[in-house]
Amino acid sequence: MSLTLSCAFATSNMSHEHARIAEELGYTRAWFYDSPSLYPDAWVQACRAAERTQRIILGPGCLIPSLRHPATNAAAIATLASIAGPERVCVAFGSGFTGRLMLGERPMKWADVAEYVRTVRGLLRGDQVQWKGNTIQLMHPEGFGVPLPLEVSIVIGAAGPKGAEVAREVGDGVLCAPEALPGFDWTILFQSGTVLDEGEDPGAERVIAAAGPGMTMVFHFLYEHGMLDLLPGGDAWAAAYEALDPATKHLAMHDRHLVAVTERDRPFISGDVLAGSGMAMSPQELRDKLVGIEASGVTEIAYQPAGPDIPRELEAFAKAAQG
Does residue 141 have a cis bond before it (omega within 30 degrees)? Predict the structure, then answer.
């Protein structure tokens, strides 16, 4: 298998330490999810990780343009590059999922995402660029940033044809979930779940805690895209949320997103569901899955561990994947 092995974190107070552990285990890249309503600041944790690592590539994914002025994100990119070096910085932009839904907002228009990324790239070149009718520029004096122009890798998080078009236009690659998009030289696919110990029951509480968050994300994603009929029990799951106050339903639905299984979601997360969806796999099942993923054109897998023991999840996945 020639897939690049990377990892992704629902950013926590310990994600910088988890990135250090991931580096020791051979992961190439570490992504930090950017959802301010749920997690600590992704830029802060990426910079903390840069100070305790030597090789692993770091960056937020996916940044949602509406959350920050382009000069703010450009300055943050430069700050991370000043600590880690430009070659260890990779940034992903997207139209927004939980990061916007938690604010009661729908995903952004892809044309606006493209304009934002072009603006950030211009700022990193040191250019004067136009934003909202104003001329802006990064003007960091010596000792207050890194010399410009600054080149870092930028990928686009996308899940459909419009996002794929923007990724081809302004990105160096594409970051996908839940399925890969074809036609890119650099395609990163997120993978959640857990690797089972020998003889372990997929319905065990450890497995529910580690793989359940990824499964509930699938319920949430399909709900937002009108495809819950693809999942057994999808209608019953939706009914549990439809009974909530519409003004706050979005908060309940994305509570502990990719971190833990809530009490409302728990009845729908079983060992059969996890095993059947590929969220709970034996080491050999994972290797077989990765072979198929690679054959589909994916070049990099970004594993997102969950549950109370992130180091265990990172080690088990790396050991099985590197097999």
Answer: no
The residue-averaged pLDDT of 191-206 equals 97
Residue extents of the structural domains in the chain: 4-196+282-322, 205-275
Among residues 320, 160, 161, 167, the alpha carbon closest in space to that of 225 is found at 160
> What is the pTM for the complete model shown?
0.94
Give the Cα separation of 6 and 236 in Å (integer). Answer: 35
Tell me what pLDDT residue 1 has. 63
Is it the case that residue 211 has pLDDT exceeding 80?
A: yes
- Per-residue tokens: 91: 């940034």
Look up residue 160 and give its two tokens: 């459909």
CB 30 within 8 A of CB 19: yes
Measured over all CA atoms, what is the biggest interatomic distance in the chain, rounded to whole angstroms? Answer: 62
Residue 8 parent element (H or E): strand 4-9
Q: Residue 56: CB partners within 8 Å, gap ≥ 6?
A: 19, 22, 23, 27, 28, 29, 30, 49, 88
Residue 98 confidence (pLDDT) above 80: no
Whole-number Å distance between alpha carbons of 37 and 102: 7
Instruction: Spell out the alpha helix ranges (H) of the chain.
Output: 15-25, 42-51, 70-84, 98-101, 110-125, 161-170, 205-224, 234-242, 249-253, 271-277, 283-295, 310-322
Query: What is the rounded distance in angstroms from the CA atom of residue 144 to the CA atom of residue 134?
Result: 23
Give the model's pLDDT for residue 54.
Answer: 98
Residue identified by tokens 């996890």 is: 274
Strand partners, 5: 301
Q: Which CATH class is domain 4-196+282-322?
A: alpha beta
Say whether pLDDT at 164 is over 80: yes
